[in-house]
Amino acid sequence: MTHNTPEPGAILRAVSAGYARHTVLHEVTAEIPGGAVTAVVGANGSGKSTVLGVLAGIVRPAEGAVRLPRDTRPALVVQQNAVPALLPITVRETVTMGRWAIRGPWRRLRGHDRQVIESCLARLGISDLADHRLSELSGGQRQRALLAQALAQQTSLLLLDEPTASLDAPTRESISRAIDHARKAGTTVVHATHDLDEALSADHCLLLRHGRILSQGPPRNVLTAETLRRAWGAPVLP
Ligand SMILES: Nc1ncnc2c1ncn2[C@@H]1O[C@H](COP(=O)(O)OP(=O)(O)OP(=O)(O)O)[C@@H](O)[C@H]1O
C-alpha cells in the first residue's frame, strides 16, 4: 500500500523559547503541513512572531526541537515598519539580495537569477518601482518589495509576519495572490495574522494563547467562538 501523505513543512516538538530570561513559548508542539498555508493566530504578545523566529532559526529553543525537511532555507518576511525605511537601496537591489541566499553575498548573478528577480517584481506588481529607493515607497509598496525579496530566494518555507497588516485592499489582494502562487508551487507558507478572514482562508491554523497552543487544525475547527473568546479573554490569574 502506498501513502500519499505529504512531508510536513515543519515540526515543533515541545519547544520552549524566548528572549534572555523571558520565556515566551511554552512546550509548543505543532506540525505545519507541507505545501500548504498555515495561519498563526493569537492576541498581541501571544508569541506569533516568536513562532516564526523559531521556525526561521533566529530564536533558538531553550528546550525542545524544530525539525525542517532537509536543505530547507526558510525565508522570513518581517513587517515593513521593522525595516529601516531610509536604507539607501532600490527595490531591484532589495529583491536581488534574495538571490544571495542561493548564490552567496555579492556574487555575480546569472541570467536565470535576473529572470527570477524580474518575475518576482512583476508578481508583486512593482516592476515600475524597481529603480526607486525603498525610502521613496509607501508602506504597502515596501511590504511588497520585502515579499518579492523572499520569493526570489525560491525557498520551500516562507514565513510572513503579518504580511497584510495596515494595507489597502488592492495591496492585500496582490500579496494574497503571491502567497497563493507560492502555495500552488509547493511552498510551505506560515503567516502570522490578526485578520480572521485571512486565517479562515488558510489550510491550517495554530491558535496561541500566552505562548501555548490553544488549538490547531483546520481553521474552521480552530477558530470557534469559544476558542476565540478564550484566546482574547482576560489573562488567567496565577
Ligand atoms: N526581541 C525581543 N526581546 C525581548 N522580548 C521580546 C522580543 N520580541 C518579542 N518579545 C516579547 O515576547 C512576547 C511575545 O511577542 P511576539 O512578538 O512573539 O508576540 P506576537 O503574538 O507576535 O505579538 P503581536 O501580535 O503584538 O505582534 C511579548 O511579551 C514581547 O514583548
Automatic annotation (TrEMBL):
<dbReference type="InterPro" id="IPR027417">
    <property type="entry name" value="P-loop_NTPase"/>
</dbReference>
<dbReference type="InterPro" id="IPR017871">
    <property type="entry name" value="ABC_transporter-like_CS"/>
</dbReference>
<dbReference type="GO" id="GO:0005524">
    <property type="term" value="F:ATP binding"/>
</dbReference>
<dbReference type="GO" id="GO:0016887">
    <property type="term" value="F:ATP hydrolysis activity"/>
</dbReference>
<keyword id="KW-0813">Transport</keyword>
<dbReference type="InterPro" id="IPR003439">
    <property type="entry name" value="ABC_transporter-like_ATP-bd"/>
</dbReference>
<dbReference type="InterPro" id="IPR003593">
    <property type="entry name" value="AAA+_ATPase"/>
</dbReference>
<keyword id="KW-0547">Nucleotide-binding</keyword>
<keyword id="KW-0067">ATP-binding</keyword>
<dbReference type="Pfam" id="PF00005">
    <property type="entry name" value="ABC_tran"/>
</dbReference>
<protein>
    <submittedName>
        <fullName>ABC transporter</fullName>
    </submittedName>
</protein>
<keyword id="KW-1278">Translocase</keyword>
<dbReference type="InterPro" id="IPR047748">
    <property type="entry name" value="AztA-like"/>
</dbReference>
